[in-house]
Write a structure and sequence with these properties.
By secondary structure, the protein is an alpha/beta fold. The protein folds into 2 domains: about 120 residues, Rossmann fold (3-Layer(aba) Sandwich); about 250 residues, Rossmann fold. It is built from 17 helices and 13 strands. Helix 1 crosses helix 5 and helix 6 packs across helix 17.
Length: about 375
């Protein structure tokens, strides 16, 4: 068939290359199989082939830096990357998936596993591919907790850590602050995108977002007028997320503290809910009520992550007390650093630009790394044998 993809195999082991070629030819649903032991020559061939290509790259003898560099070159031309290795430890699989692999196969590669992977990747239209995106929503059912600051700085650090496009979406539809916090004056907002842009191609769709400086963070602000928010429906929220997932590997959402139909749709559609609270009795009681709501909606246990903002080691209420009260473990703690945060807000920048050596700037870097690694580790489970 004319639309069948080519398969380009990058492997320094001749026997391994030939075995993989044999399995692929048996499958019968690819147009061509190209073998290379010289990865640079393979990259040059990939440029000629273009997007309708699956790349199988072995990393058994590659250094971590070489893996990252090679994956970056490949992703310029195709997102359908399969990584193989004779080392299939959890750490290696995480590195492969973090580099952008769609699949990981341990060596020696088994015929059935390879055919399964090729079957899935061959069915993907390279011109209209949905990514393995994750929607990460910051939520608190109490105002003034600081979730907008967390959403902004988590998204910015995720863009740096993952080296991919990250969308930061303001779905606090009536009183959003993201564009103010980042000193942005966007030409478009979420209301305009929902009404006019969801069916556009990626290159047009992404122009509706305001890029934050010279980064891969793309911001979509809340509606310009409060009354515009009233016309947005839960179904449109679903359609917005579907469009976002075609473009952005990570989607970070800030939303209001209200519980209404749109809020429930946002929470239901999210892969992760980062529930934000602080250390005081009213906030913890509110957290209890909210967690009960999540349980009533039968959210998976690993969907909700509880974080404490403005944390201080000398707080009278200890983390263990909060965990015992809520019946859940605390996922992360963001330290109290009022002056650094306020300086960032007043200057319209992320915290890292104010003082990269501060405890809170370091905390957000570590937080983003943990979020990225934990998301990848969830996917690694399918590769364990």
């Amino acid at each position: 068939m004319q639309n069948n993809p080519s398969v380009l195999v990058l492997d320094k082991n001749e026997n391994s290359r030939e075995v993989i070629r044999g399995y692929i030819q048996e499958a019968g649903f690819v147009s061509d199989v190209l073998l290379f032991d010289d990865y640079n020559k393979g990259y040059e061939k990939l440029k000629e082939i273009g997007g309708n290509c699956i790349v199988i790259m072995d990393i058994s003898s590659e250094e971590d830096s070489s893996l990252e560099e090679a994956a970056e070159k490949i992703k310029l031309h195709t997102s359908r990357l399969v990584i193989t290795s004779s080392d299939y430890s959890t750490n290696t699989i995480i590195k492969a998936l973090r580099a952008g692999a769609k699949e990981f196969l341990p060596k020696p590669v088994l015929r059935d596993d390879l055919i399964r992977v090729l079957s899935v990747l061959s069915s993907i239209n390279p011109d209209n591919e949905s990514q393995q995106s994750k929607i990460i929503t910051l939520y608190s059912n109490k105002g003034g907790i600081g979730k907008t600051t967390i959403a902004i700085n988590l998204a910015a650090e995720l863009a740096k850590v993952t080296k991919t496009k990250v969308a930061l979406i303001d779905l606090n539809l009536q009183l959003g602050d993201i564009s103010t916090f980042l000193n942005l004056n966007p030409a478009f907002d979420v209301n305009y995108v929902i009404k006019n842009m969801l069916d556009k191609d990626e290159d047009i769709f992404i122009k509706a977002f305001e890029k934050y400086k010279d980064t891969s963070l793309y911001v979509l602000s809340d509606p310009s007028y409060i009354e515009q928010s009233e016309s947005i429906t839960p179904q449109q929220i679903t359609e917005l997320f579907r469009a976002l997932k075609k473009v952005f590997p990570y989607i970070v959402v800030d939303m209001s503290a209200n519980i209404d139909a749109n809020s429930l749709k946002i929470l239901d559609c999210s892969d992760w809910i980062i529930f934000t609270t602080i250390v005081n009795i009213p906030a913890i009681r509110n957290a209890q009520r909210c967690l009960n709501l999540f349980r009533s909606r039968r959210y998976p246990k690993d969907k909700v992550k509880i974080i404490i903002n403005r944390y201080m080691d000398n707080d009278e209420i200890k983390v263990e007390d909060i965990e015992n009260t809520l019946g859940e473990k605390i996922y992360w703690k963001v330290p109290n650093n009022y002056f650094t945060i306020m300086e960032a807000v007043n200057k319209g920048v992320i915290i890292e630009e104010i003082n990269p050596a501060s405890n809170i700037a370091e905390n957000f870097k570590e937080f983003a790394s943990k979020v990225s690694d934990d998301i990848i580790e969830q996917e690694v489970i399918q590769y364990r044998f």
